[in-house]
Specification:
84 residues, alpha+beta, NE0471 N-terminal domain-like, three-stranded antiparallel beta sheet, 4 helices, 6 strands, DUF2442 domain-containing protein
Length: 84
């Protein structure tokens, strides 16, 4: 039986780093700075500022930035630690 994956705990660590805990017990610390360097885009660039990045929300176990989901990191990517 497949496990429905979701985030149980989130800790903002400062800058562009977040520590996530998942319902399967996996803990992952992610630094999003490399994502912003690789994926420069006017819509995303503003979230590379820690003051805006730290306002992220967890919705549907995804990390979401912006009022209208300007940028979304799916729970599966967060779990593997590979941000595309």
């Amino acid at each position: 039986m497949a496990l429905f994956l979701y985030i149980t705990k989130t800790d903002y660590l400062g800058g562009l780093s977040v520590k996530l805990t998942f319902n399967d017990g996996v803990e992952r610390t992610l630094d999003f700075s490399s994502f912003f360097k690789k994926n420069s885009h006017p819509q995303y660039n503003k979230y590379a500022a820690p003051a805006l990045f730290k306002k992220f929300k967890i919705e549907g176990s995804n990390i979401v930035l912006g009022k209208n989901w300007d940028l979304m990191f799916p729970v599966e990517q967060l779990h593997t630690g590979v941000l595309l």
